[in-house]
N-succinylornithine carbamoyltransferase (Flavobacterium suzhouense), 948 residues
Amino acid sequence: MKKFTSVDDIQDLDELISLATSIKAAPFADSEKGKNKTLGLLFFNPSLRTRLSTQKAALNLGMNAIVMNLNTEGWSLEFEDGAVMDGSSAEHVKEAAQVVSQYCDIIAIRSFPTLTDKEKDEEEYVINAFLKYANVPVISLEGSTEHPLQAVADALTVQEYKTIARPKVVLTWAPHPKALPHAVPNSFVKVMKKADVDFVITHPEGYNLNPEFTKGVTITHNQDEAFANADFIYAKNWSSYDDYGQILSKDPSWTVTPEKMTLTNNAKFMHCLPVRRNMIVSDAVLDSDASIVIPQANNRTYAAQAILTKILENEK
Amino acid sequence: MKKFTSVDDIQDLDELISLATSIKAAPFADSEKGKNKTLGLLFFNPSLRTRLSTQKAALNLGMNAIVMNLNTEGWSLEFEDGAVMDGSSAEHVKEAAQVVSQYCDIIAIRSFPTLTDKEKDEEEYVINAFLKYANVPVISLEGSTEHPLQAVADALTVQEYKTIARPKVVLTWAPHPKALPHAVPNSFVKVMKKADVDFVITHPEGYNLNPEFTKGVTITHNQDEAFANADFIYAKNWSSYDDYGQILSKDPSWTVTPEKMTLTNNAKFMHCLPVRRNMIVSDAVLDSDASIVIPQANNRTYAAQAILTKILENEK
Amino acid sequence: MKKFTSVDDIQDLDELISLATSIKAAPFADSEKGKNKTLGLLFFNPSLRTRLSTQKAALNLGMNAIVMNLNTEGWSLEFEDGAVMDGSSAEHVKEAAQVVSQYCDIIAIRSFPTLTDKEKDEEEYVINAFLKYANVPVISLEGSTEHPLQAVADALTVQEYKTIARPKVVLTWAPHPKALPHAVPNSFVKVMKKADVDFVITHPEGYNLNPEFTKGVTITHNQDEAFANADFIYAKNWSSYDDYGQILSKDPSWTVTPEKMTLTNNAKFMHCLPVRRNMIVSDAVLDSDASIVIPQANNRTYAAQAILTKILENEK
């Protein structure tokens, strides 16, 4: 693997999940693989799980992990080609990406979308600028349109908890007080299309995800119908894609409640976290045995370690 | 040891100090004990000594140390049970504590008091929420009411510098421009009650510490009287406990000066640092041979390393 | 080597460059030299290259690297002797420097100048306070008046890319929207005076550097004349030294363009980065084969590793 910025970079999902599973069984088995290699983790935005689990994954492989908060610890970056840099940006991404490549063997970067400039967000201009100018492999720690490390952890979690060969997996929109990105649902849609599951998306009208990604997936605006016989409920809020970045609804009837869960086939409840309690999901669901959000978060380490392993192996 | 959030968690102070002493003599002797273990250090507040010495202690034991500033690098946390999370808090401590437990083998956390809400502070709601929800041992890096790692370093320092079997140790209040927490004096009181010392507290009227903690300790409002024949002077400011969080006095006559020190038995001067020069203590004392604040700070490493050792040993 | 806060601390430049060259050829050859040693990196200001390359250098030597942003993560420091600390500064540098010396075997520190108080800046009051009070070797990560690690990387780069025994090296001022420090040009001047080069400085009138440093160096206000037959063009902006910290000119005719480069002897283009594109230098130069700014940045690791090596060796 030469880069990992999209679920599209996964060539064989089954093999990747199988690798993550064996890493989870023996996380320190390859603790020499990353010797004398450095992972640079660059953050433009807050992070808890991604920050800790990706560092942990690197350390498990014997890599060094250097974390940097680009906004507060470094120089403000310019992304425009040909810019006359007489403003507030002190450094062009052309130099920054090449320079970090001198010190780090793999660059991992988080950059959230603007949610106001759809075109810019869809260009993934930050991640793609690093991909373009860096001389080493680049990993997305969540970009504008995808969160692929989360998707690998999600697929691993479904694999671990499924009780039938082809489970029904439902991605449901749920209400949230703030406008949220599409990266997590986009990557979840992409990875579920690669998995052997019966996949359904449910959301209120006006909340279509990018149709390019959801093509071929069953979509319903009837949440109850979607929940019927489901084995996994994956809840997530996102802002409108068509009316870009807008909040069209905070309808509490979309909150995942114990009543809703009774419509399912004893479904497991999933969420990428952080989760707004009693907005996205009621306490009674999140605190029940049906919830697997904590083991799902735990799988972030093994997902990241599997990706780092594949990138390190490619280098040799 | 399963947790360390209070001096009350010390079962045998002599044995702990003895462990710290032997660690200090050979700090790298157990550099395999923490192999493949990760300490997560979570900070809600500034820190110099605690941040560096606890990392150093972990590294000496071969552990990985991952530091995170929760306010700026992570998500703002909700602590209320049953909250409808439609405000600014993005993640409930229930999830945060469980999630960090997936990546870290020990969680260490710093959270200062509000000094406005006495009830909330006394509940130690941050530290206790982590204790309640984390699945791994929790260490306090200073909470609302205690700073137990400091207390271990303090006890070790007294042990090292005492010249008689049962020295007289005086905790004296001293003036400061800002309202300060009670955590350091509380923990010092608790640890001195466990030590074989003649312990006296002196402070102006209105500056009683929590009487639950000071029960049985000699308290005087006459600083000179307290200093008489003292072997150790431990200076510290705290805000009023009764008139919670208020500054009742900045009386410069309580500053520790060379004149005051002449009342003692060539006492050593101690302070947890950071210290306000010429408020808490005059330059002439702090820069004299009587001051042992630097070796006291150095002992923070060995105190932390002793606690980490005991927690790691318990796990096995 | 007992400290490294100025180019003046280099006793034998050739030997240092030779050491850096051999380290670059085998960066992990001495990975036990720093075992159980800790480098503390203290930042008062933003940093990308210095932050990453110095950490990398320490890790290559088997050292632990602990990074701390003093402004946001620690206590605000007092530097005045005898201060009555009743203001916003919580800790005196006397304690801070001694305390960090308890936890770290080498202290590295970055502190930019005020550019308003010339006297204070020239005293290097931050770096020098750490030098005075620390009990371990101190390295400058860029102070008010020097950036010596950059200078070592610069000298190494000139050594690597020169095609004749005694190349002509030109330091040219170039325009910039903000007032910048003199540390980089000062250290570059100092190191070039130690190197076997034909060294010329060119800048507009009013932009003299500290004459103490430039004594004996050819200085011209005619940039074209300076560029004639040059082998290296080192561009850098600085604010006025005489009219301290002021911007006297943003004259775009001083920008390094392809036309200007044709005056040279196929010169290599150097800059310490971050660089303002199309202010300091036009895209066409920076994106050409003449530009060696990325390998120059890469050399920061080996420069730092050479300095750390010399300091570690001195300790034994």
Summary: The two ends of chain A are 11 Å apart (CA to CA). The longest strand of chain A covers residues 38-43.
